[in-house]
Structure formats: structure tokens, C-alpha cells
Amino acid sequence: MQLATRGALERLPDNQREVLVLKYINGLSTEEVGVVIKKSLAATNSLLQRGRQGLREALGPALGLPAAESYGETR
């Protein structure tokens, strides 16, 4: 599973991957991530949401997760 997660992360756009790594691997708050990437809180939240969506789409079938629409998110 770790390899699948790493592969899914590597396929994300750089900016989405960066915010996910800063938040979930490095443990920064959303506000701290925004400072590091020099974006507003709203822009940071948007990148996090899109990054999580990308991971969900890449890993969901293998994990048996519901489609994105089940989370109230659409593309």
C-alpha cells in the first residue's frame, strides 16, 4: 500500500503534492502550509481538496472507497 500511495502522490501535480506532503507528512497546519507556499488560506484549502481528490481517485478502487460524488465533491 505504501508503494501505491507514493505512486499516486507522484502522479499529482507538483503544487497538490507539495501541500499534501507539507500537511500530512511534515505535520504543518493548513495556515503554515499557506505561509510556506505563499498562498492564501482559501487557495491552500483548494489545493489540499484537489490533492485529496486526486489521491481518492487513484487509490479508491484498490481500497474499496466510494466515488468522489459520495464525498460531496465533483470535478
What does this structure look like?
With 75 residues, this protein is mainly α. The chain has one domain (2-62): Arc Repressor Mutant, subunit A (Orthogonal Bundle). It is built from 4 helices and no strands. It is elongated. 16% of the residues are buried.
Task: Describe the structure in brief.
The chain has one domain: Arc Repressor Mutant, subunit A (Orthogonal Bundle), CATH 1.10.10.
List keywords for this structure.
mainly alpha; Arc Repressor Mutant, subunit A; elongated
Structural class based on helices, strands and sheet pairing: mainly alpha
Multimerization status: single chain
CATH topology: Arc Repressor Mutant, subunit A
**DSSP helix fraction:** over 70%
Task: Report the CATH architecture.
Answer: Orthogonal Bundle
Distance between the termini: 25 Å
Strand content: under 5%
* Coarse shape: elongated
Q: Let me know the number of strands.
A: 0
Number of helices: 4
What is the assigned CATH homologous superfamily? Winged helix-like DNA-binding domain superfamily/Winged helix DNA-binding domain
Helix and strand element order? HHHH
Mean pLDDT score: 87
Biggest sheet overview: none
Number of structurally distinct domains: 1
Pfam family, one: Sigma70_r4_2
Domain RNA polymerase sigma factor 70 region 4 type: 6-53
Protein name: RNA polymerase sigma factor 70 region 4 type 2 domain-containing protein
GO molecular function: DNA binding; sigma factor activity
